[in-house]
Amino acid sequence: MFVSRTTVGWEALAPAKLNLYLDVLGRRADGFHELEMLMCPVRLFDQLRWTSNDRAEIHFTEGESTERFRFSVAGTDVPSDETNLAMKAAHLLAAEAGVEPYGSLSLTKRIPTQAGMGGGSSDAAATLQLLNQAWGVNYSKQRLTGLAAQLGSDVPFFFAGGPAVCRGRGEILQPQSGLPKLHFVVVKPDESISTKEAFMQLNAGQFDPQKSEGREKPLERLLELLRNGMLTAAAKAMSNSFQSVILASQPILASLQAQMTALNSWGATMTGSGSAFFGLCGTAQQARHLAGKLRAVLEDGSRAGAKHEFGEGHYLRGKTPR
Ligand code: C5P
């Protein structure tokens, strides 16, 4: 997350994330699941802006209570009401710090929704950090991370400032240093998946919470491979508990994964509860090359505005080949 001052207010960039590893260890008494994940921020950003209004000016407009705090969303059809996690974050911070906000918060979406790329969670984390500065609240990172955990399981991760192992519901963070800069190609198909439904599918299937016990430690092995720059082996050591369940129920995604694997021998892994898939590449050049090949096979890869590229990898959006 990057927060900066602008001529009219404050601005924050909220990165997307990928799950390089996701293991569902079991179901807890509170209904949530115990997780073990390796998450990594990637250079695809939503943008948040805060502009303060002059309180006196607002005071004389009608309907002061609704005019006082405005929230808008551009770039996608996600809601701009109380159900939006960024809006929830703004209200939580205002209530906690006793601030009466006068101004407008706007969100420009670039991270696809229901993709497993953490867009909503990242927006919430960036909102907390942005408004913490804009409103002069000055809470510590630790206190903000505590508020983040109240908003959603993946929100605290975005305060780690880099790749992190996340345990518990996702809120117990262990930042990881010494990992190399990685290059990915990410494909978000038209199909979308809700996290809640993915957990329900997992529980309805053959998921056995005990299966993880007594196994080798695949996450430690993955971290070691990444640290040693053994990327071919690292790509193969990436895994996701949701993947086989989602692939079994959505053959269209299985076909996407097969296409990606055919073009990139390092394979393709689903992020979060889907539906985006990513392939690890050795260099930026390799990522560009793979992105080009994938564009050629994805049905609407040439559609104007459908392609996005970002610094450390490539993000493609398109219809799954049938
Ligand atoms: O925490 P968050 O609101 O993002 O979670 C969304 C849904 O995903 C929860 O309602 C729950 O069904 C499921 N979930 C879970 N275990 C987790 C995280 C999320 O069961 N560790």
From TrEMBL:
The question of whether tRNA processing is a record keyword is answered with no
The active site annotation covers K17, D154
Gene3D superfamilies the UniProt entry points to: 3.30.230.10, GHMP kinase, C-terminal domain (3.30.70.890)
Residues annotated for ATP binding in this entry: P112, T113, Q114, A115, G116, M117, G118, G119, G120, S121, S122
- Catalytic activity field: 4-CDP-2-C-methyl-D-erythritol + ATP = 4-CDP-2-C-methyl-D-erythritol 2-phosphate + ADP + H(+)
Q: Where is the GHMP kinase N-terminal domain?
A: 84-162
Q: Where are the transmembrane segments?
A: none
Q: Which GO terms describe its molecular function?
A: 4-(cytidine 5'-diphospho)-2-C-methyl-D-erythritol kinase activity; ATP binding
The protein's UniProt keywords, in alphabetical order, are: ATP-binding, Isoprene biosynthesis, Kinase, Nucleotide-binding, Transferase
Q: Where is the GHMP kinase C-terminal domain?
A: 223-299
Q: What is its EC number?
A: 2.7.1.148
Name of one Pfam family that matches:
GHMP_kinases_C
Query: At the top level of its lineage, which domain of life is listed?
Result: Bacteria
What top-tier enzyme class does this entry carry? transferase
Question: SUPFAM superfamilies from the entry?
Answer: GHMP Kinase, C-terminal domain, Ribosomal protein S5 domain 2-like
Q: Which InterPro entries match?
A: GHMP_kinase_C_dom, GHMP_kinase_C_sf, GHMP_kinase_N_dom, IspE, Ribosomal_Su5_D2-typ_SF, Ribsml_uS5_D2-typ_fold_subgr
Pathway connected to this protein? Isoprenoid biosynthesis; isopentenyl diphosphate biosynthesis via DXP pathway; isopentenyl diphosphate from 1-deoxy-D-xylulose 5-phosphate: step 3/6
Extract one GO BP annotation from the record.
terpenoid biosynthetic process
* NCBIfam families hit by this protein: ispE
- Tell me the protein family, please: Belongs to the GHMP kinase family. IspE subfamily.
What this chain does, per the entry, is described as: Catalyzes the phosphorylation of the position 2 hydroxy group of 4-diphosphocytidyl-2C-methyl-D-erythritol.
Q: Can you say what this protein is called? A: 4-diphosphocytidyl-2-C-methyl-D-erythritol kinase
Give the source lineage, highest ranks first.
Answer: Bacteria, Pseudomonadati, Planctomycetota, Planctomycetia, Pirellulales
Gene coding for it: ispE
